[in-house]
Amino acid sequence: AGYYEGLEFDRALRNHYLSTAVRYPRDAILIETEIDAVALGLDERKIKDFPEAMGVWQREIMPFQTKIRRDEEMHPLLKKWLKQWAETTKPDFLVGVSRKTINEVLGYHYREGLPSRHVVRGSVTLEQLTPRWSTPRLTINFNDRPDEDGRQMVVGRVIQGFELAESFSTRKLTPVKVAFDRPLVPVRILHAVLECRDTGNINQERKGGSS
Questions:
Q1: Residue 150: left if φ>0, alpha if ψ -120 to 50, beta else—which one?
Q2: What pTM was estimated for this model as a whole?
Q3: What Å distances lie between residue 205 and 42, 124, 198, 210, CA to CA?
Q4: Which of 32, 36, 13 is nearest to 141 (CA)?
Q5: What is the pLDDT of residues 73-106, one digit of tens each?
Q6: 163 to each of 32, 64, 166, how far by Cα in Å?
Q7: Beta bridge mates, 126
Q8: In Å, what is the CA distance from 76 to each residue of 37, 45, 105, 107?
Q9: Which residues does 90 contact at the CB level (< 8 Å), separation at least 6?
């Protein structure tokens, strides 16, 4: 209670997103990321061709594998893919692989039966600290972001005042050397109330009720 009161929106990208600050130390409060990849259809979303496979390999898998510490256990499938890449330097083996599988190789954990939503315009998500943990930093998304489905946990949506929030992202930002991507004129949360609803109600909404 009171966590968000007084916090500024200290990160903005024009017409893309607006994020609150986070109280330090940044990892003082960690929230386990709980997402159902099957509910989001990630098990059916497959890599369709070679160009897409190459993009995933270069932008996602290669940077990830270079960051793995030596004492961390590498996913068995990643070991297999790296061996295949070394032999052919072509990521053909990714064609037909689902986004769920790729995300799991990158360290994301999923659990079926959870209320999960796509990252779309108006979604409010938590900042991803690691594939498994999030911080309380809230991000308001101004565009659909299918690439973040199954990676960012959606905890709400903007139902009123969306245009005002979007306008904050278009305001002049502070110089990069001062505070990167922060609105020049501070935008601060004066009062915040959190409303929690039980999983059963949310599951009913996913079956066709109101959202």
A1: left
A2: 0.81
A3: 20, 17, 11, 5
A4: 13
A5: 789 999 999 999 999 999 999 999 999 999 999 9
A6: 31, 36, 5
A7: 138
A8: 20, 21, 8, 12
A9: 50
